[in-house]
Write a structure and sequence with these properties.
Rossmann fold; four-stranded antiparallel beta sheet; single chain; alpha/beta; binds magnesium ion; 22% helix; binds guanosine-5'-monophosphate; 10 strands
Length: 180
């Protein structure tokens, strides 16, 4: 029987082994190295929590001087009437005039990344590019260009390598897909 793991109530099997993820990360890093080699100190902005492992491997393959920061979209807890308003926390760097590369774990419908790009645009960076580990082309319905996609998948639900199923599975070094 095929090896499966259990997270909460669901079973998962390996879909993309670590070696294949590493190759995809190397390929996307090579493109970024080429595109940004003459740009003034680019800033990588990782979106927590999902992107931490991708960012860690990606940044080790970057050959130009760069800065790194992480942000989180948190629910705004000001007044009861703005319960679904999200705000960006954790950004210490001034983005004005900077070349920003947003690092995401996965772009699905695009709602989250569109929100992130719009928020960061207001801080007047010189440029913004999106780099995502996974892209779901059949699900994406936004116009924001996604310049760097390490891997494209269907609409299946995946976990591992930073991605979670209800907070479990982020530690896994392979990517797993749900089987039931
Ligand atoms: P979007 O706003 O693009 O629809 O969704 C992006 C977010 O949905 C991701 O940051 C991630 O939290 C979650 N997501 C979408 N697809 C998957 C998936 O296959 N696995 C996991 N673990 N999260 C996903
Ligand atoms: Mg995410």
């Amino acid at each position: 029987m095929e090896h499966t793991i259990k997270l909460h109530d669901r079973h998962f099997r390996v879909m993309i082994p670590a070696a294949e993820i590493d190759k995809a990360v190397a390929a996307v890093a090579a493109r970024i190295n080429e595109d940004y080699k003459d740009k003034e100190t680019p800033l990588f902005v990782g979106v927590l929590n999902g992107s931490f492992m991708f960012m860690s491997d990606l940044i080790k393959k970057i050959e130009f001087n760069s800065e790194l920061s992480f942000v989180k979209l948190a629910s705004y807890e000001g007044t009861a009437t703005t319960g679904d308003v999200k705000c960006l926390i954790g950004l210490n760097n001034s983005l004005e005039g900077r070349h920003v590369i947003i690092v995401e774990d996965i772009v699905d419908t695009g709602v989250s990344i569109e929100r992130m790009v719009r928020d960061l645009e207001r801080l007047r960076p010189a440029s913004i590019a999106v780099c995502t580990l996974f892209f779901k082309p059949n699900s994406y319905r936004k116009q924001i260009p996604i310049e760097y996609k390490a891997l494209e998948i269907g609409n299946e639900f995946i976990v591992g390598y930073g991605l979670d199923y209800d907070q479990l599975g982020r530690n896994l070094k392979d990517i797993y897909v749900v089987t039931d």
